[in-house]
Design brief:
Layout lengths: L2 H26 L12 E6 L3 E15 L2 E5 L4 E6 L8 E2 L4 E5 L2 H38 L12 H26 L2 E3 L4 E6 L6 E2 L4 E6 L3 E9 L22 E8 L2 E16 L5 E9 L15 E18 L8 E5 L5 E5 L1 E5 L3 E6 L6 E3 L13 E3 L1
Parallel strand pairs: 1-21
Antiparallel strand pairs: 1-20, 2-11, 2-15, 3-10, 4-6, 4-9, 5-8, 6-7, 8-10, 11-14, 12-13, 12-15, 13-14, 15-19, 16-17, 16-20, 18-19
Helix pairs in contact: 2-3
């Protein structure tokens, strides 16, 4: 056997021992520690105190401030109806919309005038007789006082009462005759008409509906908590000019998003027990003729923005910077975060108004990240 073949097992044993030794040594060597992950980048805003004009959002439907049902006060047949007495037509105050046949009423007036003329003659005769009786009594020159009957005073009173009654009949007949003309009580628009030529009407029968078109109102519901942003009394007093907050309503109309400006006029002081909402009434002037902007139609659903008071020394931050618990994340000077509860005055879809809990110049985190601890470090980006 050759020497090489004899030494081969020895080489194998020595190699195995060396490999085992290397493995043992390597097992005792600690790996290099992994580098710490860098702090995450976050967006921040600087807290700066400012003035803020509060806006209260609401919605409602336009309606007429004055809506009148026209009724008949006399009986008769419709002998005239204006073309303007139809739904949607604009009419002027005093404009004749319809006429009721006045033949019978004219006859009643003539009879009343005849009775008045007769009563007038009787009254004048009774007055003359009373004067004659007075003169006759004075000529007799009796020492006793004359009785009313001797002076024909009862007959005079009866004649005077008859005259007054006849005059009242004439006035009533004239009034009824004037009611045969159905006129517009104010400038507005006809909402509907219930009669036509030849229709017979009776007192109290609705003839149509008219509304005042130059003034439109909108009922707006707001949260009870929003009342603190409005300088308005809740005791039912009429609002002064400086208390009438501006209201801007908007809605798609005629294919375009239209806007109209009005003012808060009054407040319904009743709070809905279920929704905790309060109703505000806004008034909007309407042009009779559409020259510069379209008139506000009735029944239009609108979005409203009510101008409130101006707040001083408050902080306005993006709505995504605060959570449901009214907490914000402050990034300190050492770039460590601090979770802090703040006092919120108002929230909307874009901003949050804070009046306490933040100091000027503090950095508020806007980014949404997973927080491993309440003191983790971040890399703020402005």
């Amino acid at each position: 056997m050759k020497l090489k073949d004899r030494l081969k097992p020895l080489f194998i044993i020595i190699g195995s021992l060396m490999i085992g030794y290397i493995l043992v040594v390597l097992g005792k060597v600690q790996p290099e520690p992994a580098a710490d992950a860098p702090p995450p980048d976050v967006k921040v805003v600087i807290a700066l105190p400012q003035s803020w004009n509060t806006k209260i959002l609401s919605s409602g439907t336009t309606r007429a401030t004055i809506n009148t049902v026209l009724t008949s006060e006399v009986m008769g047949e419709i002998v005239y109806k204006s073309n303007q007495f139809s739904a949607g037509s604009s009419v002027l105050k005093g404009q004749i919309l319809a006429k009721i046949d006045d033949t019978d009423l004219k006859l009643s007036l003539k009879n009343a005038e005849l009775q008045l003329a007769t009563a007038d003659i009787q009254y004048k005769l009774a007055l003359a007789e009373a004067e004659i009786a007075q003169e006759a009594w004075e000529k007799i020159n009796q020492k006793t006082e004359p009785s009313e009957l001797a002076l024909k005073i009862p007959q005079l009173k009866q004649a005077k009462a008859g005259y007054d009654a006849a005059k009242a009949l004439v006035d009533s007949a004239n009034k009824k005759l004037s009611k045969t003309d159905i006129t517009a009580p104010y400038t507005g628009r006809i909402q509907g008409a219930n009669i036509d030529l030849g229709s017979s009407v009776v007192p109290g029968q609705p003839l149509g509906t008219i509304y005042k078109s130059n003034l439109i109102e909108v009922e707006l519901s707001v949260q009870d908590s929003d009342l603190r942003f409005l300088n308005i009394p809740m005791d039912g007093r009429k609002l002064e000019d400086y208390q009438k907050s501006e209201i801007i309503i908007s809605a798609p109309y005629k294919g375009v998003n239209q806007q109209w400006v009005g003012f808060l006029e009054r407040v319904d002081g009743v709070i809905d027990p279920t929704t905790r909402m309060v109703k505000l009434i806004g008034y909007f002037e309407n042009d009779l003729l559409e020259e510069n902007s379209p008139s506000i139609p009735l029944g239009l659903f609108v979005q409203a923005e009510i101008s409130g008071v101006t707040l001083e020394n408050i902080y306005v931050i993006p709505s995504e910077a605060i959570n449901a618990k009214n907490e914000v994340i402050i990034v300190g000077n050492d770039n460590r975060i601090e979770i802090r509860e703040v006092s919120v005055l108002k929230k909307n879809n874009e901003n949050v108004i804070i009046n306490n809990g933040i100091s000027p110049g503090e950095r508020i985190m806007v980014s949404k990240i997973s927080i491993s601890s309440s003191t983790m470090m971040v890399n703020p980006k402005y």
